[in-house]
Amino acid sequence: MVAAAASYQERREGTVAIEWTARSLKDFGMASVDALARQFDLVVIDHPHTGTMAESGCVVPLDDFIDPAQLELLADGSPGGSHQSYLYGGRQWALAIDAACQTSAWRPDLIGQPPKTWDDVIELARVGSVLWPLCDVDAAASFMTLSASAGTPCATGGDRFVDRDVGLWALSTMRSVAAHSDPRCLADNPIATLETLARSADYVYCPLLFCYINYSRSGHPGAKITYGDIPTRHAGQAPLWSLLGGAGLAVSAYGRSRSDAVDYCLYAASPEVQCGIYFAAGGQPAHREAWSRPELDRESGGFFSGAGPTITGAWTRPNGPTFAAFQNDMIDLFGGWFEAASDPELFLDKLDELYRASARYRGNLP
Question: What is the pTM of this model?
Answer without folding.
Answer: 0.95
